Amino acid sequence: MPRAGRRNITSAAELEETAFELFDEHGFEHTTIADITAAAGIARRTFFHYFPSKNDIPWGDFDAGLERMRAEFRALPRDLPLLDAVRHCVVEFNRVPDEQLAGHRRRMRLILGVPALQAHSTLRFQSWREVVAEFVADRLNVPQDSLTPQTIAHATLGVAVAAYHQWLARPELELSQLLDTAMRELAAHASPPNGQ
Amino acid sequence: MPRAGRRNITSAAELEETAFELFDEHGFEHTTIADITAAAGIARRTFFHYFPSKNDIPWGDFDAGLERMRAEFRALPRDLPLLDAVRHCVVEFNRVPDEQLAGHRRRMRLILGVPALQAHSTLRFQSWREVVAEFVADRLNVPQDSLTPQTIAHATLGVAVAAYHQWLARPELELSQLLDTAMRELAAHASPPNGQ
DNA sequence: ACAGTATTTGCACCGAGTGCATTTTTAAAG
DNA sequence: CTTTAAAAATGCACTCGGTGCAAATACTGT
Q1: Quick one: A61-190 is in which CATH superfamily?
Q2: Which of A45, B57, B123, B165 is most exposed, with minimal Cβ within 10 Å?
Q3: Start-end of H helices in chain A
């Protein structure tokens, strides 16, 4: 279904790949947008038609993932305990087919490893938190911006990020496993004063 | 105790105040460093002797606070359950004398409300998380970079940030109260499958 | 007056990002 | 085939944050 008008000369995915190669070679900070566009054969100005900022390069189609997670939440039985539901969806959201694992790791190593991207991630993760808060608010029948949903959303993101860091540091461990363990970790230390 | 050499013409605190007034009037994004330095009567270049970046203006002496929190952790009885200890220190770290409340709110409204600052906060909060992780690691006798301390640190920060957002939105509520409640929130939903 | 020191400043730069007007490519209508 | 209108690509000038470096300035103590 071809629309009128000039066709795209490249794509976000293609630009991302070009950029990643340069990042691997020179590092994120030492790669300028001019470098990327030169390598991709487009004008510097054009870059900003594909990405709102340099920081957004590694995010792929994050929004599609969010929609998936929303669906996942909706599909869950209403009687599944709240945090079990959240844990399940976090794990599922981050499930990645084996053949995409390397790419996913490369993405996340950038996002969570480069300071500028780490900072920027907070802004992108906001919509992720909203998905969680939305679900919790609905389950508890409270406003989405009230304390409990927001707290659980923030904490859950924190847990997930911690698990990811662990995954990046220990490639031999499984991401899903780490996320699941991390999510249970809090509960384990929460109620009984057992300190271990 | 006067040292040799030229004396400082201003101070970070004074610059911060000047900057805050401009932020209040025009917003953070629409205030340039040139605006600030002009208002403060110093050269643009000099600004960067006082702050590493525009984003660091609202942070005051955050590091001193971290040291206080470390001390707080050390002073705690070893048999206080882990998460109780963490909760206590989070609340204490964020205890602010009444006469500084307004200033603290102004600070935090910026840090957590302006996107650029929200992003940057992730980098500043890293050292905060490290203080928590350090304590947890010590208590559990595991490496600081292992999953449990990192997870608890990340989650705790998330909870605290959620409480702060709530505080900013509802000035009538007490910060300490909100932090305490938020910290207990997770545990409440964690173990028993009661969904409410 | 002089030496040493720390701060301030000026200047020239770089890189990200934006606004706006213009050019280029393309599909489809006349 | 020509014209039209859409959409993308581009060029250019500009703003702003931030840095490196060298020179100027203000201060203390000899």
Answers
A1: Tetracycline Repressor, domain 2 (1.10.357.10)
A2: A45
A3: 12-26, 33-40, 44-50, 62-75, 82-93, 101-113, 115-140, 147-169, 175-190
Average pLDDT of every residue of chain B? 95
Q: What are the pLDDT digits (tens) for B140-179?
A: 999 999 999 999 999 999 999 999 999 999 999 999 999 9
Query: How many angstroms from the chain centroid is the CA of residue A110?
Result: 12
B99 pLDDT tier (thresholds 50, 70, 90): very high
What is the residue extent of each domain of chain B? 12-55, 61-190
Q: Around Cβ A48, how many Cβ atoms within 10 Å?
A: 13
Q: Is residue B193's pLDDT more than 50?
A: no
- Residues of B within 8 A of A147 (CB-CB) are 162-163, 166, 178, 181-182, 185
Which of B148, B186, B196 shows the shortest C-beta gap to A152? Answer: B186
Contact A9, A47 (CB under 8 A): no
Closest residue in B to A121 (Cα) is: B119
The answer to whether B181 contacts A147, with C-beta atoms less than 8 Å apart, is yes
User: For the structural domain made of B12-55, what CATH number should be given?
Assistant: 1.10.10.60
For A6-25, the pLDDT digits (tens) are: 999 999 999 999 999 999 99
Distances B30 to B26, B92, B164, B179 between C-alpha atoms, Å: 6, 35, 25, 32
Q: Count CB neighbours of A191 within 10 A.
A: 14
The pTM of this model reads 0.95
Mean pLDDT of the B77-99 span: 96
How many angstroms separate the CA atoms of B90 and B68, rounded?
A: 11
Q: In chain A, what residues touch B189 (CB-CB under 8 Å)?
A: 82-83, 148, 152
Cβ of A151 within 8 Å of Cβ of B139? The answer is: no
